[in-house]
Amino acid sequence: RKEVEQDPGPFNVPEGATVAFNCTYSNSASQSFFWYRQDCRKEPKLLMSVYSSGNEDGRFTAQLNRASQYISLLIRDSKLSDSATYLCVVNMERYSSASKIIFGSGTRLSIRP
Amino acid sequence: NAGVTQTPKFQVLKTGQSMTLQCAQDMNHEYMSWYRQDPGMGLRLIHYSVGAGITDQGEVPNGYNVSRSTTEDFPLRLLSAAPSQTSVYFCASSRDWPRGTQYFGPGTRLLVL
Fold this sequence. Notes:
The complex is a heterodimer of chains A (about 110) and B (about 110).
Chain A: E1 4-6, E2 11-14, E3 19-25, E4 32-38, E5 44-50, E6 55-57, E7 60-65, E8 70-75, E9 84-91, E10 101-103, E11 107-112
Parallel strand pairs in A: 2-11
Antiparallel strand pairs in A: 1-3, 3-8, 4-5, 4-9, 6-7, 7-8, 9-10, 9-11
Chain B: E1 4-7, E2 10-13, E3 19-25, E4 31-37, E5 44-51, E6 54-57, E7 64-66, E8 76-78, E9 87-94, E10 103-104, E11 108-112
Parallel strand pairs in B: 2-11
Antiparallel strand pairs in B: 1-3, 3-8, 4-5, 4-9, 5-6, 7-8, 9-10, 9-11
């Protein structure tokens, strides 16, 4: 089993739709969670951190479910510009060892007009 | 601020050649890291540094060396290139990683023949 797993997609949804995807992680001691966005042939950029209480940034909502060991990303009212690959990132060490930052392989999202 | 810069953008090497991928940041971040990204896989950590003079191995360090003589620069050396090192390489920096945001450079695409 991979330490961090994501559905690779692609998710192909119409503009204006709501889309959600999950990321599961294997280590229950994981401490920090992030969603990054990566456009085609570009570098990853932080979309949002994921806090225990969940957090929202405009159309984007991230949640953490420690009991089931997954994080989720919800995008409401999707825009064409949301088309990208979304990377889940988990810090798996209790004491924040830099060597246990694990990236998921990404979920590809395509928004159609 | 230029952020994180990487050179070269593209490189073709023959098996057995050596080269250095350059990375620099102007944000005075203590933490810097190198990742490789291969199709269908998440970014994998090669080496990282928590400050000038301090480096450590990540998940896939074999075949690569790093040094950190200044806060700004973190070069990655391929000692004897192999086709398995064909990949996209990203350098990243952070003020408070691994808990905080990582800022990535634009990447270097490397092809080893």
